[in-house]
Amino acid sequence: MAKQDELIENFARRIEEVQGQIEERSNEPAGFSEDDSSTPDDLLTVLQEEATFVQAELNILRGIDPENGADVVERGAVVITDQRNFFIAVSSEEIEVDGVKFFGMSDKAPLYARMRGLKKGDEFEFNNLKYKILDIY
User: Fold this and answer.
1) How far is the C-alpha of 42 from the C-alpha of 77, rounded, in Å?
2) Residues 50 and 87 placed together within one structural domain of the fold
3) Domain count within the chain
4) For the sheet containing 100-106, what is the strand order?
5) 81 and which of 46, 65, 92, 131 could share a cystine (Cβ 3.0–4.6 Å)?
6) 120 and 94 in one domain?
């Protein structure tokens, strides 16, 4: 959640900067602005869409109760495999917790679709790579 909060702050700061550019541009005399196919208005729209997406992901994270353990692969589960460790919630860069690396995975990811509902000890294959689920919590 800290990483999501940081992303949201970065988007808010960047949105503020672009809004300032738009305001400055609107105060320029007619014909003074350079013609640019990528306008601050376009950039603002993209930034706002991305910020909305990151906020939605943060809401997903906030909706996960860490006290509720899991015994199947589902949203909120930590899945330990012989290949990689996953936290099923939102896509994220690999993060390290107490020296153990985890890959954040959205429940919309194709790999999740392949492992969804599986239990400890189950095996599955994805992109010609075999996985064995060692633990779920």
Assistant:
1) 38
2) no
3) 2
4) 94-97, 100-106, 85-89, 78-81, 129-136, 123-126
5) 131
6) yes
Whether residue 132 sits in one domain with residue 83 = yes
3-state SS assignment for residue 63: coil
pLDDT-wise least confident of 5-19, 23-37, 40-54, 92-106: 23-37
**Is residue 69 in a domain?**
no
pLDDT digits (tens, 9 = 90+) for 55-85: 877 777 776 777 777 889 998 899 999 999 9
pLDDT of residue 26 exceeding 90: no
Does this model's pTM top 0.70? My answer is no
CA 114-136-86 angle, 5° bins: 60
Q: Sort residue 86 into left (φ over 0), alpha (ψ -120 to 50) or beta.
A: beta
